[in-house]
Amino acid sequence: MEKQGFLKTTGLALLATITGCRTKSKSPKSLYKFGYGYTQTNFLRPPGAVAEQKFLQGCINCELCAQACSVGAIKFLTATLDGQVAPHTPYIVVADTACNLCLYCTKVCPTGVLRPIEKKANVNMGLAGIEGRLCLPYIRQGICGVCYTVCPVNAVKLEMQRYPKVIADWCGGCGLCEEVCLQKVKAIRVLKA
């Protein structure tokens, strides 16, 4: 393929990808799987959660953590998720409602599967990552910076006062950055720690 033909094909594919991400879809699942391998539901355990196997063995489904959650971020699974997660255990989908790091849930857990945490900086729910192919400054669609502005632990920095970058050692995975991201397919996503 000639260089010009390759560039034209690549440019058209990129344009289709960008415009495809900005159109409304009836199924959010199709948005998250579009081109970048995202899954529909990216759930996290609440702050202070022990390792998953211990968590599943120790959680008694008392719902005290959800009752203590000041923003209503903690929900309970109603069915087995992809055959991996036990029903009626607490989770957070930060794209919907992020954790505000109030840490009340860690103080009320009667079984210790949510360990008490005193400082926001000690939370380790997950790690945020930026997808440059979706982030507005990276694709030259303007200046944004909402992830930088909302981060409660200053884990997002702006390089050249424009391009967000996550400082992994500081990020606790609260997901406020993902919740406020302006893109329909989130340009910043928190993955489990």
Strand tally: 7
DSSP helix count? 7
Shape: elongated
Q: According to CATH, what is the topology of the largest domain?
A: Alpha-Beta Plaits
- Would you list the SSEs in sequence order as H and E? HHEHHEEHEHEEHE
Helix and strand content put the structural class at alpha+beta
| Distance separating the two termini | 43 Å
Low-confidence stretches: 3-36
Question: Which CATH class of the largest domain?
Answer: Alpha Beta
The rounded Rg comes to: 19 Å
Approximate helicity band = 25-40%
Strand order of the largest sheet: 1-3-2
Number of domains: 2
Share of residues in strands? 5-15%
Largest sheet: 3 strands, antiparallel
Care to describe what's here?
- It is a single chain.
- With 193 residues, this protein is α+β, with helices and mostly antiparallel strands.
- The protein has two domains: 3-39 and 123-192, Alpha-Beta Plaits (2-Layer Sandwich); 43-122, Alpha-Beta Plaits.
- It contains seven helices and seven strands.
- The protein has a three-stranded antiparallel β-sheet with strand order 1-3-2, with no helix packed on it. A two-stranded antiparallel sheet has the order 4-7.
- Strand 5 and strand 6 (163-166) form a beta hairpin.
- The protein is elongated, with a radius of gyration of 19 Å.
